[in-house]
């Protein structure tokens, strides 16, 4: 029986006195959504989708599009005075659709960035990075769903699920056959961070046709991103008329927990993904 158990916090103690928690849950987006900052081409449709990139009047995706959406309240991911880091889990669903599944582009990402973050490079840079160079001053961690091979930085000529740290070049990745999922299939994603072992884990599941992928990487948020950050999504289409796709976020939940100083914390949450329940991942709760 195949079970993936994701521990957000593995370090336990009986001395927990207090902690700082932040959470939100959006099961359906609304056109008057107050807790999102929309950047670039991002918009919310009357049907309750967070549409990151532009479509025409017939719903066809357009090239040269870049859109981002950020949660409006900054998230504290570590404490400068104590050195403590927060654990977090985020769960979201998305769908992409392309007129031609052989020319999908470019992809989308969940990312963590400085509070004043602004849209960056188009195309394969996914609106997150200004160029392909690794630069610690970027202070960005991202989980990317890359549907197009960019020869300058992408691995092994394959679309992939990747973890990016201060560069668009994925630190770790798992090949994903996005070509077979570009017809509007719903994807569900769980991203977790364990501050004790400094492990970021991202799992991607397509309930139909029951395909799952997972990637993990060593990431130390305390030395990578600022104490206060924004979390959000970014997506881009290609720089050619043929290389396009839609990028729609369907739902989004997030929870973080920062322990009080001098105290260790009990496990925040444990999420189990069982292959018998691949068609029911929306049952995940925080």
TrEMBL record:
Matches recorded under InterPro entries: ConA-like_dom_sf (IPR013320), L-lectin (IPR016363), Lectin_LegA_CS (IPR000985), Lectin_legB_Mn/Ca_BS (IPR019825), Legume_lectin_dom (IPR001220), Leguminous_Lectin (IPR050258)
Coiled coil stretches, renumbered: none
Keyword Transport applies = no
Q: What is the residue range of the signal peptide feature?
A: 1-18
Q: Which CDD domains match?
A: lectin_legume_LecRK_Arcelin_ConA
Matching entries from Pfam families are given as: Lectin_legB
Keywords of the record, alphabetical order, are:
Calcium, Glycoprotein, Lectin, Manganese, Metal-binding, Signal
Q: Which residues form the Legume lectin domain?
A: 22-261
Molecular functions (GO terms): carbohydrate binding; metal ion binding
Domain of life, per lineage: Eukaryota
- Give the UniProt family note: Belongs to the leguminous lectin family.
Protein name stated in the entry: Legume lectin domain-containing protein
Lineage of origin: Eukaryota, Viridiplantae, Streptophyta, Embryophyta, Tracheophyta
